[in-house]
Amino acid sequence: MAVATAPLRILIGKVGLDGHDRGVKLVARALRDAGVEIIYTGLHQTPEQVVATAIQEDVHAIGLSIHSGAHNSLFPRVLHLLREQGAGDIALFGGGIIPDEDVPRLKSAGVQMLFRPATPMQEILDFVKGLHVGH
Amino acid sequence: MRLVAETLADQIAKGEVRAIARVMSLIENRDPVGTAVLAQLTPSRTQASVIGITGYPGTGKSTLIDQLITAYRRLGQKVGVLAVDISSPITGGAILGDRIRMQQHAHDPMVFIRSMATRGHQGGLAGTTGEALRVLEAAAYDVMLIETVGVGQNELEIVQVAPIVIAVVAPGLGDEIQAMKAGLLEVADIVVMNKADHDGADRTMRDLREQCRTVLRTGAHTGEGISELIAVIAEYRRVQDLNGPRWGKPAERLVQRGATSGG
To answer: For chain A, which terminal residue's Cβ has fewer other Cβ atoms within 10 angstroms, N or C?
Structure first.
């Protein structure tokens, strides 16, 4: 049998004024079932809260759900704070309602992956398992 | 490895959050570097308080801790929290959600909150919670709050880790026989009946007062009773300082009784 490896730790939460948490809870649950330790912050977080939490919890990655349309400001703000606080090694991915035209810009800013509506859960799980190899 | 461990221990002593967090992960993952760092650490505050918060699931432990953080911050104290939640026995995964209730303190630099999964450990804590506590002690936190998983009546490891243990219960505990049962309420130094505004609160208070030495009533959502709780903890701490850390320990008394009666 393989020796148990240290579990992945991932922060999952929602930033900004946005109460749509059905999707993010499904993702959290699926990741739990895949053996991940999820630090769940709940709704209405600021980028500052998210980054401080990610550092205290020493997570491998942050997954944020945004349905409010504020993705173009919130994702870059989280990336900026991570780098500013010497935590640029923590990966950022996201999901939610994000128009096609915004995806390339966010990815080039440093968001590793964006999962939009109707993404198969397996795709998210595969992405997250890939993080483990890289850390 | 030794050099890495010394550097990390040094950063912890300076209170650097990234080092504190990273070493806690090393310890949780049973990495030898974590053990090497632990060997280098020394507690830096003789007056620090370690308080365990335990109790049945859903009684409001996390919300109570949120209020305690606010109160201790008003007193100028640096606060560390270790919040333990259960790992899935099937997949090993976990949803660590205690800190949802404490997120207003997330970016206060004088507050550090860490979620720990039990990773198969029984007893109400993670197997490495005691070692994570040593990291906080070395980083000069004044008050350290440890939240156990929602316990039944037999997960009492917190008594070994925290000199002051608070058991949180909610109204509607059951009849007074529940309050008489051995276990949780018996080993607690302070019993808090939270959710004071819920139905049955007066009745539950009466039952608890007949069975437990120190019973307080709080409403963690409104802040009711929090300053009284802080005062009782301080008084408890003062008497322990005068009489030794084992003073008044119900568990200690039981062990002694067992010894003298010869079982």
So the answer is: N
